[in-house]
Backbone:
């Protein structure tokens, strides 16, 4: 099986099942957060799910993708094996990618 060449800020349809408890589930669009250097060398990618359920959480970033309003759920970051990646759907806008990076810095600052 060929290794998927996912790139940072691409949106992929990803099979997140099986999950446990409150983990975000089903096959859904997710944005790749891991840097390209990692994506080239590892068999996993770090992702955050996109959701159409809007919450006023500090861990969410508003976005529009393929004409649909939603949010990048940075409270649902996880690493998944590349075999879970179903197909590439597109790429986040530069403005949304920048907002995601800024929010991640806020969330993980020390």
Residues:
């Amino acid at each position: 099986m060929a290794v998927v060449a996912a790139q940072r800020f691409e949106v992929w349809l990803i099979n997140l099942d099986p999950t446990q408890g409150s983990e975000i589930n089903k096959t859904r669009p997710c944005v790749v957060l891991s840097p390209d250097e990692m994506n080239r060398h590892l068999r996993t990618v770090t992702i955050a799910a996109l959701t159409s359920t809007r919450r006023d959480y500090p861990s969410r970033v508003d976005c529009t993708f393929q004409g649909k309003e939603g949010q990048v759920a940075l409270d649902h970051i996880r690493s998944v094996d590349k075999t879970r990646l179903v197909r590439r759907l597109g790429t986040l806008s530069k403005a949304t990618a920048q907002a995601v990076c800024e929010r991640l810095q806020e969330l993980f600052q020390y």
Observations:
- The mean pLDDT is 93.
- The longest helix spans residues 94-108.
